[in-house]
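Exam prep: given the inputs below (a chain plus nickel (II) ion), describe the expected output before reading on.
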Amino acid sequence: MAVLKVAKLGSPVLRQIATPVAPERIGSREFQQFLDDMIETMVASDGIGLAAPQVSRSEQVVVMECQGEHGFPRTILINPVITGYSPATAESWEGCLSVDNLRGKVTRPVGVRVTYLDRDGKSVELDASGLYAVCIQHEMDHLIGKLFLDRMTDFSTLTQLEEFDKHWRTEHAEVI
Ligand code: NI
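Solution:
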């Protein structure tokens, strides 16, 4: 296992369209090791999600996990596709492991349906809501070269971490 280097805002890899993973590669030792390294990197960085372009590998791979009451189980998405959005939207704070020390409010659909391959190469359909759905959308944006900053419609909420902790600490901002 290894903690990988996280690409930061300005790195061109964060703006690329990620390529799909060939299903026959999923079972390979190298790819399985990569998934474990991504999980280790996410945990070591105190994030709840990480997309492969964030570790400079422009492939359609996402790892996510959030412990606690409003959390969600460890989920690995390979070649994910969102097939449905709830009509309702909600605004929540987001941060990103590739954007140091900034938080901002983003409005997104509260629920999504996503199909993907899991780490066994099995096809899965998942309905997610709340933080789980926010995280899926944030991570899948990384696969099309988008950051949460691009999804903000009101930059008046853009906040440095130190000020966030001072003024907004009762609200939660996950780093994804
Ligand atoms: Ni992110």
